[in-house]
Design goal:
alpha/beta; ubl conjugation pathway; 9-stranded parallel beta sheet; FBXL15_LRR; 13 helices; F-box_LRR-repeat
Length: 291
């Protein structure tokens, strides 16, 4: 009889009986893919509630694994109850990400310090305005291939002087010297600046970078064919922390400005001249002789 009572008193413990926030959301659900989490969410009402709690606790929201196969509705489920997001990685959300789906996330998460909207084609400068107004701790921003970005949009983004350190504007064709000059005027702590394929960029913008970004570590201006040796020389002279320079397809940038940077061990994507010529360039750089 005693054995029968013990068996009768046993309690069956299921997965959902394990503490949600302390165990499941912290140690189990983070190992599942976004697709698997949405499938789990559809199993039952309790699993839906569990996954929603997990989504509400995320510090990083990333849809990269789904890219353009995601949807605005799913994004609303993923982000709608979260007020603690610090990193928003939405790269390659070409068609489904719109201002209407992005703005609530930006407005509800003032602690955002990293945003990646690379190749997101269906949003507008209204999103940049919202980021500028709400995200005062923004340090990392990528707008690569966002051809809708305008100079006015950039001004609305930076007018509150975010502490930006990494900015990628590669392929933002509509930007000009004035937009880049304003960027570095308001955000002087930039360390990594990527401006590839902004075809209207001239020496004026890069000279502003040289004078206003003394802590610059990487500058990438691939395909900016209007640039000359003059601006690169000034970058070399004024940006003492420079570690990497990308100037491929900049036909007017030569060893006259690159030689002294090579002598400083700055990584440059243009091939170095032959060994003999390279030693000669370094020798002249050491003597501070212009080529």
């Amino acid at each position: 009889m005693e054995i029968e009572n013990t068996a009768r008193d046993r309690v069956t413990v299921t997965l959902l009986d394990i503490p949600w926030e302390q165990v499941l959301c912290r140690h189990v659900l983070p190992s599942l893919s976004l697709q698997t989490l949405f499938r789990l969410r559809s199993v039952s009402r309790q699993f839906r509630d569990l996954v929603d709690v997990h989504f509400s606790l995320l510090f990083t929201i990333s849809t990269v694994s789904c890219a353009d196969t995601f949807s605005s509705r799913a994004f609303g489920v993923l982000s709608g109850r979260n007020f603690c997001v610090k990193e928003l990685i939405l790269r390659n959300a070409k068609d489904w990400l719109t201002d209407a789906s992005l703005l609530p996330v930006v407005q509800n998460n003032g602690l955002l310090h990293a945003i990646d909207l690379s190749n997101c084609r269906s949003i507008s400068n209204a999103s940049l305005y919202a980021i500028g107004v709400n995200c005062h701790q923004l340090r990392w921003l990528s707008l690569q291939k966002c051809v809708w970005v305008s100079s006015a949009g950039m001004l609305s983004l930076i007018v509150n002087e975010q502490p930006l350190e990494h900015v990628d504007l590669s392929g933002c064709w509509d930007l000009d010297d004035e937009a880049i000059s304003q960027l570095v005027q308001y955000c002087r702590g930039i360390k990594f600046l990527l401006l590839n394929n902004i075809y209207g960029l001239t020496d004026r913008a890069v000279l502003a970078i040289a004078h206003l970004c003394p802590t610059l570590q990487q500058l990438s201006v691939n395909g900016c064919w209007r640039l000359t040796d003059h601006c690169i020389t000034m970058v070399g002279e004024l940006c003492k922390d420079l570690r990497a320079l990308q100037v491929r397809e900049c036909r007017n940038i030569t060893e006259k400005s690159l030689g002294p940077l090579r002598a400083r061990k700055v990584r440059i994507d243009k091939p170095a001249p032959s060994a003999i010529c390279n030693r000669y360039v370094q020798h002249l750089a050491g003597l501070n002789v212009q080529i």
